[in-house]
Amino acid sequence: MWKRFFSNIGALIGVAILVTVIAVALLAPVIYPQGPWQMVQRPFLPPFTVDGLPLGTDTLGRDVAAQLAYGARVSLLVGLVSTIVALLIGVPLGAAAGFYGNMVDEGAMRFTEFFQTIPNFALAIVLVAIFQPSLASITLAIAIVSWPPVARLVRAEVMSVRKREFVDAARVAGLTPRRILIAQVLPNTVSPIIVMASLMVATAILLESSLSFLGLGDPNAMSWGYMIGAARTVIRSAWWLSFIPGVAIVVTVLALNLIGEGLNDALNPHLARKARA
Amino acid sequence: QQEGGRLDIVVQPEPPGLMLGLVQNGPTQLVSGDIYEGLLRYNTDLEPQPGLAESWEISEDGLTYTFKLHDGVTWHDGEPFTSADVVFSADVFLRETHARLRSSLAYVDSIEAPDDRTVVFNLKEPFGPFINAFEVGTMPIVPKHIYEGTDYATNEMNATPIGTGPFKFDEWVKGSHIHLVKNEDYYIDGLPHLDEIFYRVIPDAAARAVAFETGEVDVLPGGSVENWDVPRLTEMDGVCSTGKGWEFFAPHAWMWLNNREGPTADQKFRQAIMYALDREFVKDVVWNGFGTVATGPISSKTNFYSDDVTIYDHNPEKAKALLEEMGYDGEPVRVLPLPYGETWQRWAEAVRQNLSEVGINVEIDSTDVAGWNEKTSQWDYDMAFTYLYQYGDPALGVSRNYVASQISKGSPWNNVEGYENPELDEKWEAAATMVKPEDREAAYAEIQKEIVDDVPVAWLLELEFPTIYRCEVKNLVTTAIGVNDGPRDAWIEE
Amino acid sequence: MSDPVLSVEDLTIGLPEGADRAHAVEDVSLALAKGEILCVVGESGSGKSMTANALMGLLPPGVTVRTGRAMFEGRDILSLPEPQKQAMRGERIAMIFQEPMTALNPLMRIGEQIAEVYAAHDRYSTSERKKRALDLIREVGLPDPEKIVRAYPFQLSGGQRQRAMIAMALALEPTILIADEPTTALDVTTQAQILRLILDLRDRHGMAVMFITHDFGVVAEIADQVIVMREGQIVERGAAATVLGAPEHPYTRRLLDAIPTGRLPEARQLGTVPALEIKDLRKVYRTGGGFFKPVREVRAVDDVSLTVARGEVLGLVGESGSGKSTLGRAAVRLITPDAGQVLVGGTDIAALSEEELRKERHKVQMVFQDPYASLNPRQRIIGAITDGPITRGVPRKEAEARARELLEIVGLGADAATRFPHEFSGGQRQRIGIARALAMDPELIVADEAVSALDVSIQAQVLDLLRDLRQRMELSILFITHDLRVAAQLCDRIAVMQKGKLVEIGTVHEIFQSPQKEYTRQLLAAVPGAEWNREGSLTA
Amino acid sequence: MQVLTAIVGRLVKAFLTLLAIAILNFFLLHAAPGDPAVVLAGEAGAADEQMIEQLRERFGLDQPLYVQLGKYVWGILQFDLGYSFRQGAPVSELIADRLPATLLLTMTAFGISLVCGIAVGVAAAARVGKPSDTILTTLALLFYATPLYWLALMAVLVFSVWLGWLPGFGYETVGANYTGLERMLDILKHLILPALTLGLFFMSVYMRMTRASMLEVSQLDFVKTAKAKGLSGPAIRRRHILRNAILPVVTLAGLQAGQLVGGAVLTETVFAWPGIGRLMFESLAARDYNTILGVFIVSAAMVIFFNIVTDLVYRIVDPRIGATA
Ligand SMILES: Nc1ncnc2c1ncn2[C@@H]1O[C@H](COP(=O)(O)OP(=O)(O)OP(=O)(O)O)[C@@H](O)[C@H]1O
Ligand SMILES: Nc1ncnc2c1ncn2[C@@H]1O[C@H](COP(=O)(O)OP(=O)(O)OP(=O)(O)O)[C@@H](O)[C@H]1O
Ligand SMILES: [Mg+2]
Ligand SMILES: [Mg+2]
Q1: CA–CA separation, B53 and B267 (whole Å)
Q2: Which ligand is nearest to the CA of C185?
Q3: CA–CA dist B18, B192 (Å, integer)
Q4: What is the pLDDT of residues C386-437, one digit of tens each?
Q5: What is the third-level CATH fold of C274-526?
Q6: Nearest atom within ligand 2 for CA of residue C324
Q7: What is the ipTM of this complex?
């Protein structure tokens, strides 16, 4: 599986980009100990004009490169944590629905459908506005709007795995349903979940930046969306201020998508079966 | 002077309603200032000019104000306008709906209409600033024949406002624009010059700038684009700008400092803040050079301003010393920015940076408009940005923020910081009721000198919102409320 | 022999890198004469399908013809440019596939799909095409042609779909018909009908047929010529009678030996202690009932009573959908019956609660049909075998020791314990499944089509193992199969089911030699290549 | 008869869902800090307690929460979305004013993205592995990864500021008083940029889905049957693969309609498009409860409508559904 993953050029590029972004995020406090908010120079310096400020300065004369590095922390953190939270909601719900069926399924699916009926970005806006923007509330809001597809996917996977004969075998062996679900069924659904999770991180990063753009970001956390939102008003005079973080988002999301597709190819049972036959 | 033409003006945000007697927020005043009129208008030196009243007289004792109304004025629906409308508006309608006017009306004993064209206000005691209370946003005259005896808030006519002004309401396409057309029967011959006005709703500041650049709109009233865009736009060919037209409001920005609890309850801490802040930097960078660093509670554009006060320059050392002196233990303070766009956000970030440089731990509290209102009015903040209008006179727009009688939970426009100084309270009260301007001048100078040392709030800037417009548009800003009632006299040069 | 219409010479088909071998087929040569049926037999993966696909020009991506020619109507069809191959397909050479369920486009009416063959080759007007499609449907013996033309595939049974496929293949009266396991997915009765249809059509149209199968019964039924393939090579060829009667190559012999023949084993003495008693069992499935569908009821098991004695192997046979699996699953309580009792050693497990049931579970175990699906791909073998005993309270050490011992018994060796399922072949996996069942010390094993998915040679090994275990452990087995020959090999008694009802039950000899019911007789007659009575196997 | 019960059942379910959404959001909104009366009073530039009390009374905010909820739900049951005190108009009127714009925008974007997405997806699948496929999929990935609002900003910058080809904001030329065809063309001109930016993201989603689905379907057995019949590649793609591959795409597209409606908030903001997304966002800051709830209900209804439509399409295209086997 890993062999196939790493023979995929797209996936390799994705991993390389992501590793770079993660490294920058982790090293941000080392490279820029003064933080992203420090005003260091004249405002509106274009990139590559002043030594030591490769990406120039923003509207208040803060180092854009430092902002970008710290922004990576927030974007990745929000993306990751919200995905984990979404999985924590979606996986158990979908698994229970798919495994126990009947009333449980009915209830869980109605609940999921309900959340899918509310336009998700609008719901995220309301949630963040209500809980007041902070990293925690943004992450939670993103998680709340992004779990339904997880639940649906897990449900479908569990339903198909549940029909496989080894599940019957486990029942005949006298295992309790809960143990069958956890030890036998769920491990067989991880591949599609992993693929979906990698794409969800990407979507979450986009969502965070969109919220931030609308002014619903955490004012104490530097994020890429914040940078674009802040630079939007000067897009005419300093377009690069929104362009640079925009590219950062595009590249990171692209990397995550490439990885997701690579994983999909590597884990896809369809292709795997073909190779086995 | 040329007749005709159309003017496109940005209005932001979209007004909640156009019935000026019910809603007095900025966008409503901008649009409805053309539909409704007050008894008086004010020039940029805040001197009263004829409005619906063609002349007026104040008795020697300052207790009787007599207005002679214009002849031949009609409402937009054709009904004649009379003194009864004025009495109804001031005494009945606005008393119920207009909080700001209500505090001025408290000085009024009675309002009479001896004849169709005369209105007399009788005051209980002299009230110096009363002559400033007849501006259209403060006392809009509303039609008695439409509102008398109805539920004002739900009257159907609110959707199609009827005034006496130079322009008539035509159409409101929600989310897009409001269309006003020339009032052909306007009582001043030759006015207005323009045929129609479109107030354009464009929610995004950058889009507003683009709209101006591409010629979609002709006028950007103060504050409609972010400050960073102002120099770029004004440098374009054929574009003019003016800082005038805000004298009546004289927007004054400061941070509420919670005088009740936390480090901000300590006068030394508050003074330290004043020294820590680099207000010149903010003016130059965040506000792009617009505005003036405030020296105290009264704007230099307002009557009775005095600069004979302690000047707080940017002096981090002094700030640190003061903090040392008070024994500041690093307790974090929260800053609540004003949720009015990027400029204010940047300002809060600059403040956080300034304060952290002198060792104050700052966290920015984030919130939207409703949250900001809630937090300030419920006193749930340490430091909170705001800016308020001065309405031409300290007694109207300044004292309310510093006197103890104005401490009351639930409103973000009174003495929110919780400053209590009984001695000064008396001086404010006395200054308001003096008849002679020279006396008031002296009284206010004394007040300013004293209060600035106390730093009840952290005064920041006298804001300047330049109005940007195409140079073909003439005579647009001639009054103290600028574009709000400017289109009456404006004309376009081909 | 007349001139061959098709002659393949030294065909070698290369597989992409990473496949299990370099060539799918190597140096294959064969000839096909007009009106002749050539059967290609061999185990799974021996290259049968690849040969056929190469002739059609339908090799999957990555798989290429390396060398060789295939002369047909004076041209080498392997090296034709794609447009000409396309023109040839369907018109000169037609093909039908194994899976009738998926080989038709689910969104297109049957008539359209048949008429499409004409459209593809620009024949006839639209209305003419329709008429001809209708004729074809009639010719392949589909009932109610006017209705079938307008039907969608899902409205047809498997056999009907396969007929529709054949109709398509016949549309342009091709010279050659290639049939890649066209009956494997069908039950015996339907299979017999389809084979008869193909023979019939061959006679009427004089097509040459290349028939791919792994079932020697089918070969015996229809073949003129036979080719036996193994790992991409032809190991034996010749006339059907010769190859079946006197095989030369050891592989062919092995294959033929492994075939469960009609020969019946000697009857054994049976005990009378019942291991499993089923009384008046009933299970009704209700499906549908959505907004747009009425509720559909299927009486899968309808008041069936039977007994399996200690040490007995009871075969349960019947065509697809007759309720065999349902009965078997009810016996292990994977299904809760609607009525009736399932007595195992005297306890009615049908009436137990979930909790109580788990304690009794071990008494009845099951061996599942699909050796791939019945093992958790992410669990080591040892875990699969010990899960049950450990849940029952057997200490882990003990359970693992026993598991190793059982792996030895089923002939895998104790070191298989730590491997994952994908590291085993199908037959080996089925042994693991048996070891897993045995680990629970059951009184009865339900084997639901436990050997159906296996190649004949492997099938024989597993059957041997079961026979051996029956002797050694005094196991009772409920052996479910649709393959009567397999049933004849292993079982003591046979129960025949039809549409949920028990039609007939009796000893193997009674059932096979003097079936009482018409349905049983039909079933027996439909088995390809079966000659129960003529072989006189009673005494064998 | 059965179809009728089915439709009635769906409608009842939809109505219950909407009710639940209204109730949930009612509580969410009321849990939020902020008071519409204070906001409204505040915008007047001054307020006193008397005024705020008056406003609260007028808004019904002085009553206990459950009474407010009861009143609201009672209204909903009578298809009454309540009154916006802030805007001084019935919510249904406010929404009706804005809905056409949103519908126009989202439907156009949906149409463009679905049609183009499927077309490009089919084209890419037909050239799988070739450079043109790589280019198309990379482009789609790029659009997928680009934040919507950023794309919108850049589009305005390039096409309306620098090039001056298209209007950068608004719904129509204000005050031009166009009628008939002229007006339609004018609106169309304004529609291009917002619909494209909103559509591009979803187009890339549908394109990727179509491509994957096409490739999956092309593995299915019946495709081999079609080849064996002698059909040409394009004919197989058109008649067999596409028809089967498009179903899951349409279903997913229907499910994703919610995102489309949500995405409109950003597009409407950047392009000053007078739709309900902006109405919601602006009302949110003012805690104009009834308006926000109304927008939520209406947009959820749109999502349900989208779902029902795709469901119907599915039923029409796929004979297996709805038939009794
Ligand atoms: N698409 C493919 N890619 C790579 N190798 C393949 C592919 N299809 C089949 N093979 C390999 O080609 C060889 C021959 O396969 P083929 O399908 O011809 O076998 P078969 O005799 O038809 O078996 P079965 O009875 O299972 O259908 C096998 O080794 C198989 O693994
Ligand atoms: N879960 C289910 N839901 C609805 N109907 C079912 C279900 N399982 C089986 N059936 C139906 O019950 C009948 C009996 O099915 P069963 O699986 O017992 O047959 P079988 O004899 O084992 O057939 P096969 O040889 O094909 O395995 C069939 O008509 C089948 O369609
Ligand atoms: Mg094959
Ligand atoms: Mg079965």
Answers
A1: 48
A2: 2
A3: 20
A4: 998 998 888 999 999 999 988 888 888 888 888 888 888 778 888 899 889 9
A5: Rossmann fold (3.40.50)
A6: 21
A7: 0.83
